Amino acid sequence: MRALVVDHAVPGRLRIDTVPDPVPEPDQVLVRIAAISLNFGELPKVDGDTPNGTIPGWDAAGVVERAAASGRGPRVGERVITFDWRGGWAELRAVHVNELAVLPDEVTFEQAATLPVAAVTALRALRRAEVAPGTRVGITGAAGGVGTFAVQLAHLAGAHVSAFVGSPERGEGLSGYGADRVLTDPAELDAPLDVVLDNVGGPLLTDLLVRLAPNGRVITIGAASGERADFSSYSLIGPETSIIGFKRGGDSAADLAYVVRLVADGLLHAPVDWQADWTKVGEATALLLGRRVRGKAVLTLS
Fold first, then answer.
1. Domain match, 270 and 228 both
2. Could you tell me the pTM of the whole model?
């Protein structure tokens, strides 16, 4: 099969190569992939932390080519959304039945490919923060993949949503997704926040820590700024702030089915901001690393 493999010697550090087909384990199905999405966190970095020849890829959607030998999971020919921490950027993917969901006819492969990491991360982070109707939620990096879904899901939960973006241009469209306010500076807040979902870190997180209501909660999802968040421990004592490190985790079949159904029902928008054939992967990575994608970048397999 063909796959996108890491090659630190080429632009974008990814190239299409021929590699052996995956061999499914008893509880894995073999999926022929139709569309993938790219996340900032999975791109090969300058420091070469991902070895050459690795097949990355968290998010992928396609058609079951071989059912699981155990008899569990979807049947041959069913359209599915899949997740794993590797191996998604290929023509074939072996994926555990606990990490996929069948797609309703109303959801395209391109829409589905945006969901596994970004939408499920946002969903689980909001649950961890115990967001409820009336909760004042601040979301940093709100124009990115996780942020765009977090804005929508927080709005669906009845929260008051403040979406933080790097520029007014990056914030275009977020009001339509349910953001009550789109901000570029924490100083623009008119009331303390109960919850912060932080994708950015750095000075922005530092500024938001002092703008939390009593018993405020910070869920740290990412640190896209690459900068330190410096603050005094005393700033956390009075308001009894909780800072919670968060990672998506696995066993996501039920949550994948849930977010897919929201998309099918028109309650959740899958934000495909940029789409191309997977031969354009170099262009896609440049756009992501340059923060020029609002929502998700999706590649289809030719």
1. no
2. 0.94
